[in-house]
Amino acid sequence: MRLLRVYERYFARQVYGVFIFILFAVLSLFVFFDLLNELESVNGKYTSLIAFFHVVLQAPTRVYEVLPIAVLISAIYVFSQLASQSEYTIFRVAGLNTRQALFSLFKLAVPLALITFIFGEFIGPRAEQFAQKVKLEAIGATVSSDFRSGVWVKDRDKDPSGSGEITRFVNVAGLRPDQTITGITVYEFDAEYRLRVIRVVKEGRYQGAQSWLLSDVNETRFSELGKPPGAPGDGLAPEFRAEQVRFPSITMHSELTPQILSVLLVTPERMSTLDLFRYIRHLRDNKQDTQRYEIAFWKKVVYPLTLFVMMALALPFAYLHARAGAVGVKVFGGIMLGLSFHLSNTLFSHVGLLHTWPPILSALVPGTLYLLFALTALRWVDRH
User: Fold this and answer.
1) Structural domain ending residue among the three candidates 237, 257, 277
2) 280 half-sphere exposure, CB direction, 13 A CA radius
3) What is the CA radius of gyration of the chain?
4) What per-residue confidence (pLDDT) applies to 1?
C-alpha cells in the first residue's frame, strides 16, 4: 500500500510537470496561427492590437481543445523516459501490475478532466462570446452566419386574435454588442401557414418578459378577398389584398431572447452544455432540426472523459524498451496519435450529421475506438 502511494506521487509529479510545459508550447503554437489568420482582417477600425486581444480571449477555448493532446504527449514522454531508464521495470518488479498502473493513471486524469470541464463550461464560452463582441464592436460586423442574408430564426407565438398559433420566420442582419438587433425582416404566417404579414424593421431592442420594441417598422399586410355567394373560386390561386402600414415603433411578443440570439455568435462546438441545452429546446419547440447541436452537446459531455482515454493510450509506451526506439520517436508517435484522435472526433461528428446517426453515438464512437485500441495494446505489451 505504501508502494502505491509512492509511485502515484512520483507519476503525478512527472506527468503534471511535463504537462504544464507541453500545454504552454502547444497553446502558443495554436495562438500564433490564430493570430496570423486574424491579421488578415486588420483594417482601419480593426487594429492589430484589437486582433491580438481577440485571439487572446479565444485562448481559453484553445486550452479546452488541446488539453487531451497535451496530456497524451506528456504521459507518453514521461513513460518513455521511465522505460528508457528502466524505472518502470523496477516498479513492475516491486509488484506494480498493469491494472494497478492503469487505475493510478485514471486517478491522475481526474483533476485534468475537471480542469477541462471548467474551461469547456465556464471560462471558454464566456471568453469566446466576449471575443466576438469585441470584434463586432470594432468593425461593426453583422452576426456570423452561413447565409449572406444574415441569420434565420424560427419563432412561434399565440395569435392575438385568439384563432390559434402564428409562425414567424425572422431574418436578422446584424447583432450589436449591446444585443440590439438590426436589419430585421419578419415573415408571419397564420395557423394554416398562409402569409399574412411581412414586417421590415430597422432596429429591435429587448424589453424583457419576451417582448421586443421594434423601431421604424414597415408592415405589408395580406388579407384574402371574399367571394360573392355562388361565384366560382380558385383554391390554388386565391385573391389577396395587400396593405402597407408604417409605425414609428411597435411591441412584438416573441419567444426569442437575446440569450438565444447571442448563441449565434459562437459555433456549437464552443458553446457550454447549458446554452446548447436551451437552444436545442428552443429548436424543438419550433419543430426545427437539432442534430448538429445535439452532437455538439454530447461531445461536450463526453470530452472531459477523453482524458482517461489519453492516459490509457500512453501506458503501453512504458512497456517498450529503449532499444525499441528513441524517446523522441515515441513522442512524435504520440503527437500523431493525439492529432489522429482530434481529427477522428471531428470526422465522426460530420459523418454522424450526414448519415443522421444518433447524436450520442457520434460523440462516443471515437473515444470508444481509441479506448479499445489502448486496452488491446496494453494486453499485447503485458504478454510480450
Assistant:
1) 257
2) 18
3) 28
4) 45
